[in-house]
Amino acid sequence: MLSPPQREHFxxxxxxxxxxxxxxxxxxxxxxxxxxxxxIAERHxxxxxxxxxxxxxQQLGRAVPRADSLFGPAPAPRALLPLAGLRGAxxxxxxxxxxxxxxxxLASQDLPGAAPADAAARxxxxxxxxxxxxQLHRSGDDRAAVxxxxxxxxxxxxxxxxxxxxxxxxxxxxxxxxxxAMAAGFTALAGLLGVGLAxxxxxxxxxxxxxxxxxxxxxxxxxxxxxxALNRASFVVALQRATQRPGAGVxxxxxxxxRFREFNEWxxxxxxxxxxxQVAARLRAMVRSGDLxxxxxxxxxxxxxxxxxxxxxxxxxxxxxxxLKQPYALAGRSCEVGxxxxxxxxxxxxxxxxxxxxxxxxxxxxxxxxxxxxxxxYDARLDDELQRRRRLGxxxxxALAGNSLALHFQPLQEAASGRxxxxxxxxxxxxxxxxxVPPTTFxxxxxxxxxxxxxxxxVLHAACAEAAGxxxxxxxxxxxxxxxxxxxxxxxxxxxxxxxxSGLAPARLELEITExxxxxxxxxxxxxxxxxxxxxxxxxxxxxGTGYSxxxxxWRFPLDRVKLDREFxxxxxxxxxxxxxxxxxxxxxxxxxxxxxxxxxxxxxxxQALATHGCDExxxxxxxxxxxxxxxx
Length: 633
Ligand code: C2E
Ligand code: CA
Ligand code: CA
Fold this sequence. Notes:
Bound molecules: ligand C2E, calcium ion
Distance between the termini: 84 Å
CATH topology of the largest domain: TIM Barrel
CATH class of the largest domain: Alpha Beta
CATH superfamily of the largest domain: EAL domain
Radius of gyration: 33 Å
Number of helices: 20
Low-confidence stretches: 10-16, 18-43, 140-144, 175-199
Number of strands: 21
Shape: elongated
Largest sheet: 8 strands, mixed, barrel
Helix content: 40-55%
Strand content: 15-25%
Number of domains: 3
CATH architecture of the largest domain: Alpha-Beta Barrel
């Protein structure tokens, strides 16, 4: 439709002439319009395909560094990666490049068959200034042209590079094309009847420009600018269309990268963006041509797969997991990032696009909870579990507000003397119906629901208040979640406040942190740790040995203690190497001025072995279970 200023402009231009012509040409014009509309419907796929292919080759010439090498005998590796990124961004699903002499130099993997025998002749004709050629491949079903093969020259900054055979999947842009053809047709008819053929012809050329601008905007509106994948809104539209086709086999795979946030904070936004682009490129290389790839959120991607066959989907999901696990070259280093996938099948797991995405998301959460780097299918029980978790979140908030959480304390024993030197505070949630909810469950829930800061503050205050009533030589250890370091400076303030309010001497408070905290946002975290130490409190590294760091990596951080994860204690008896590792961790920690606590001591044999290996303190059921404060010795 025309906007009011356009209409005015058009009226000024053509009214006089139109009135004069109107009567004479009405019959002829009606005939022309009928022919024209027919022509639009016929010609649009070719135009669309050529436009998309031309855009692609222009991008190739401009955006790919050393693009010229793609037309030579050995493409520069630097050119191949962005090339993969270009693929699929506009519905281009395959291509073959030809050197100026007509020799095929590079083809995408999924291009069927070899270069045609007349390739050299076609390339010569194109480079001599011939028009781009388009061939439509119509499939048998009710859709219009589904694929197009476009031949056109490719130019670089300093002249022609060669030619390209570009295969375009018109399915993706079919809806836009149909819509604009209909709109153009109706507006043309209205324009004709109102003011005449001359105006129509003027307007047609104007509308054509407007349409191509609109299609360009449509493209931008439908794709994620960073990765070229579809965005969420257009993915849902495509999914809706796919699920409405009768008997369609459709499935949604939702995936996200494991620990992307830590990664982003660690290497910076630029590397994070580069990673996302590489992930999108790998995904596009993995899916079949009928499948669509979308980016739904920060590190969340989705694939619309053209099948509901569980075996095939499991195969695809496994291939994606394997491929995304391969190292990425980022910020000058080689990095590894895993991915988890959730799958929902149309017709089995709920109809409607929104439901499918929601269910695939639930399955994704399950895959992550089951240990990441895996895929899971949606199953209706997940739905119940989600409801349960939501309820639990609300109940946790109430428990925190109603002061019904509790702290238990587990003794820490000096290995040499057997003396109790302090206690670790462990949060407990006595639930009216479920009994004690395990802290690993509700701490994770608090982290997800944003309650963790409040919960952590409560723990700090309660632990300090309790310990202030103990004999002076006893310490108290409090666990901190990485989420408590997210707001710069907040944790330092909270700790200082808890100390001041309870009157506990800072030297009697030890804060336990985990390795994952040190991986993320190193600088601000380092600052916070130094500030905490400046208050006079001590810092312990909890669960040491379960993460990625080695002691050699930890020397930069102001740590007073390492707590060996209970896995070491557990495996001590079965594997002689474990004793060697424990011994060397202890001597290295001592060399760095840190003390060592061994966790999970359950047997007398373990206690003796750990003491022999030089551990300073011990903790475990053998020496005392976590107890409410009124039951402490
Ligand atoms: P953690 O910090 O490693 O705490 C030690 C856990 O090991 C406790 O589990 C304790 O009951 C258990 N444990 C102690 N001795 C033994 C033993 O000999 N054998 C075995 N198998 N286990 C032993 P709990 O209380 O279930 O806490 C689990 C985790 O929840 C804690 O692991 C900690 O990461 C987290 N957590 C607990 N309270 C808090 C808290 O207030 N804040 C934060 N951020 N995390 C907490
Ligand atoms: Ca701990
Ligand atoms: Ca621990």
